[in-house]
Amino acid sequence: MAGTSSPPTDPLFHSDPPFSAPNPAGSPRLPAARLSGAFRVPVSVNGTSGGGAPPPPPHTECKMVEVHGVKVASFTVNGVELICLPQVFELFLKHLVGGLHTVYTKLKRLDISPVVCTVEQVRVLRGLGAIQPGVNRCKLITRADFETLYRDCTNAR
After folding, report:
1. Eight-class DSSP state of 136
2. Which fold has domain 59-155?
3. What are the phi and psi torsion angles at 97 (to 5°)?
4. From CA 89, how far away is CA 85, in angstroms rounded?
5. Alpha-carbon distance values, 66 to 7, 19, 50, 63, 146 (Å)
6. Which of 51, 84, 137, 144 has fewest C-beta within 10 Å?
7. Which stretches of 90-132 are assigned E, i.e. beta strand?
8. Using one digit for the tens of pLDDT, what is the confidence trace for 29-52?
9. How many CB atoms lie within 10 A of CB 114?
10. pLDDT at 60
11. In the chain, what are the domain boundaries?
């Protein structure tokens, strides 16, 4: 048959979803059991994979930590725990302020400087569902800075 073609044999193209375990909540996010521990991004160094899996890049290990009774994504960078700003905005601040632009204005006024995520960290956050699939940039803040921001948002009401 001249009009048919065989499926690609490249291992990057799969017809099955990469994670097909049942998820009772129906959410595309990882199951809660996977969220309780750390999440590492598989990477290759210089395109090689000899001798086992290479270590992950620095600061790509994500842990779920509890903030105000809710689990949020966290990275440890230079010994400091940083939480995902867009995620805490969605969970805690969205109903208190006009939008993320207002949050950035408050951060500036409060002299809080968020840390810009690396590409690898953004991939991890997207994979966990902490940020939207199309998001390419993200910022992290310390827990103490979040508490300062949260107090400012709740007192402004």
Report:
1. -
2. Mlu1-box Binding Protein; DNA-binding Domain (3.10.260)
3. -125, 165
4. 6
5. 45, 26, 38, 10, 13
6. 51
7. 115-116
8. 333 333 444 444 443 333 444 456
9. 17
10. 79
11. 59-155
For residue 48, give both structure tokens: 């090689």
**Rounded Cα gap, residues 27 and 40, in angstroms:** 20
Tokens for 140, please give them: 């992290």
DSSP secondary-structure letter at 137? Answer: -
Percent of the chain with pLDDT over 90: 55
Q: Which two tokens stand for residue 126?
A: 């997207």
Q: List the end-to-end C-alpha distance of the chain, in Å, as a whole number.
A: 70
Q: Is 57 exposed, middle or buried, given 0-12, 13-18 or 19+ CB atoms closer than 10 A? A: middle
CA–CA dist 151, 56 (Å, integer): 36
At 118, list the tokens: 């690396």
Which tokens belong to 3?
């009009």
Contact in structure between 114 and 139 (CB atoms under 8 Å): yes
> Quick one: pLDDT at residue 35?
41
Q: Shortest CA distance to 41 belongs to which of 67, 58, 61?
A: 61
> DSSP states of 7-69 as a string?
PP--TT--SS-S--S--TT--SSPPHHHHTSEE-----BTTB-TTSPPPPPTT--EEEEEETT
For residue 65, what are the β-bridge partners? Answer: 72
